[in-house]
């Protein structure tokens, strides 16, 4: 996931944005591993192999 | 277009399998869709479902060729064939895709090689800000949605004012469509309903879309376009 796309990213549940990005691993093009956090819901969405998993936690 | 399968580490495949195994959906149809497409992802493009989708994608591309747009979201992007085709003709369009199946998104990512913003997610809960897109497309996906009104509401939210929605989906004339709908609970691929022209038009109007145009596509599909009225 490219960092600049954080500009249009919103929480899938509460629609809050901007969200918070934590980078664990990246290359010259994109974030490969990390988390995207909604500060309002206090939920972390993982980024693995460059793909953010934005499926909300099961209620 | 070739799907590249190189550079996949065993660790990457292991993580993918572990993530796919975790049930995170709030509806059994979604869980069935996720499971079915995760298993099919690597060979989807050569399957009947993949070939049906590819035909609809060609029709969607023809419609899009008449439009001017800077950003597009593909809901139920599958293996990314629509996004890849657009990126090959216009590198300036900001392309995004979402699919409930990690397997499909992983396949799309290998195909698109950084040309699109791809996410695993739920079409009822789109992770984009309001008014983020000029165009939203959903191809061979809408009949999998257990709560289509919620999806249309989300699509309208992420579309700009007067943004364009294109839905291309399976369709058959009565009574074939009704027989197909009766069979869907037993198929267990996550299919929910194949809609009539009247039903989809009513749903779009109720969700705040206007300028609705419906056309049959070949023997087994339709395309409908609509404008997000604010």
Please give the largest β-sheet of chain A: 4 strands, antiparallel
Strand content of chain B: 15-25%
CATH superfamily of chain B: Vaccinia Virus protein VP39
Most extensive interface between two protein chains, with residue counts: A-B, 26 and 30 residues
- Principal-axis shape of chain B equals globular
Mean pLDDT of chain A: 93
Order of strands across the main sheet of chain B: 3-2-1-4-5-7-6
Cα separation of the termini of chain B = 38 Å
Give the proportion of residues in helices of chain B. Answer: 40-55%
Q: Would you tell me the overall average pLDDT of chain B?
A: 87
Total number of strands of chain B: 7
What letter string, H or E per element, gives the SSE order of chain B? HHHEHEHEEHEHHEE
**What class would the helix/strand composition of chain A place it in?**
mainly beta
* N-end to C-end Cα span of chain A: 27 Å
- Summarize the helix and strand pattern of chain A as letters: EEEE
Number of helices of chain B: 8
Main sheet characteristics of chain B: 7 strands, mixed
Widest beta sheet: strand line-up of chain A: 1-2-3-4
The CATH topology name of chain B reads: Rossmann fold
Can I get a quick summary?
The complex is a heterodimer of chains A (59) and B (230). Chain A has 59 residues and is mainly β.
Task: List the main descriptive attributes of the protein structure presented here.
heterodimer; A: 59 residues; mainly beta; four-stranded antiparallel beta sheet; 4 strands; globular; B: 230 residues; alpha/beta; Rossmann fold; seven-stranded mixed beta sheet; 8 helices
Task: Explain this structure.
The complex is a heterodimer of chains A (59) and B (230). Chain A has no helices and four strands. By secondary structure, chain A is mainly beta. A four-stranded antiparallel beta sheet of chain A has the order 1-2-3-4, with no helix packed on it. By secondary structure, chain B is of the alpha/beta class. Chain B is built from eight helices and seven strands, in the order H-H-H-E-H-E-H-E-E-H-E-H-H-E-E. Chain B has a seven-stranded mixed beta sheet with strand order 3-2-1-4-5-7-6, with helices on both faces. In chain B, helix 6 links the parallel strand 4 (133-139) and strand 5. In chain B, helix 3 runs parallel beside helix 4 (81-89). Chain B starts with 9 loop residues before the first helix and ends with a strand. Residues 1-8 of chain B have low confidence and may be disordered. At the A-B interface, strand 4 of A face helix 1, helix 5 and strand 3 of B.
């Amino acid at each position: 996931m490219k960092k600049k796309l954080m500009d249009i990213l919103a929480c899938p549940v509460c629609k809050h944005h901007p969200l918070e990005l934590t980078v664990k691993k990246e290359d010259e093009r994109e974030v490969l591993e990390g988390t995207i956090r909604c500060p309002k819901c206090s939920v972390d969405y993982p980024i693995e192999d460059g793909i953010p998993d934005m499926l909300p936690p099961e209620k | 277009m070739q799907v590249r399968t190189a550079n996949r580490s065993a660790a990457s495949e292991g993580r993918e399998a572990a993530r796919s195994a975790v049930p995170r959906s709030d509806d059994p149809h979604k869980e069935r869709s996720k499971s079915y497409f995760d298993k099919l992802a690597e060979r989807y493009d050569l399957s009947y479902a993949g070939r049906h989708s590819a035909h609809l994608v060609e029709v969607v591309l023809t419609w899009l060729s008449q439009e001017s747009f800077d950003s597009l979201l593909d809901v139920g992007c599958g293996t990314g064939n629509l996004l890849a085709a657009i990126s090959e003709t216009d590198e300036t369009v900001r392309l995004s895709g979402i699919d409930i199946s990690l397997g499909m998104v992983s396949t799309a990512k290998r195909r698109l090689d950084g040309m699109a913003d791809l996410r695993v997610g739920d079409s009822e809960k789109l992770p984009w800000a309001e008014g983020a897109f000029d165009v939203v497309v959903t191809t061979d996906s809408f009949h999998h949605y257990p709560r289509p009104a919620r999806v249309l509401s989300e699509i309208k939210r992420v579309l700009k004012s007067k943004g364009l929605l294109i839905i291309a989906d399976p369709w058959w004339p009565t009574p074939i469509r009704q027989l197909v709908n009766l069979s869907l609970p037993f198929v267990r691929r996550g299919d929910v309903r194949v809609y009539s022209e009247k039903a989809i038009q009513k749903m779009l109007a109720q969700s705040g879309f206007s300028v609705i145009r419906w056309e049959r596509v070949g023997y087994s599909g339709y395309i409908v376009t609509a404008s997000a009225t604010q």
